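# nightly structure sweep
# worker-07 picked up a monomer target from the shared queue
# config: single-sequence mode, recycle default, output format = structure tokens
# input follows
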Amino acid sequence: MADKTPPQYWFPAKTYGWGWGMPITWQGWLVFLAALGLFACGAFLFPPQDSLALYIVYETVIAGALVGVCWLKGEPTRWRWGKKK
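# output follows
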């Protein structure tokens, strides 16, 4: 018989609104901090004053990758109005 353990989410769903909150596991923190580091590197790799289009594409790809990881490893999200009483 298969063990039915609940999935371990890296990112919890937000209490209000749509989306995910701050990471709750070390894997989530690793992904989050890596994304922040890559965002910061974008300004050095593609200086906005020299190549604005490449900078925007780079930052969009990093943001999309972070959202993709949240989608795969985060709690299912929907519009929320707070905790049920």
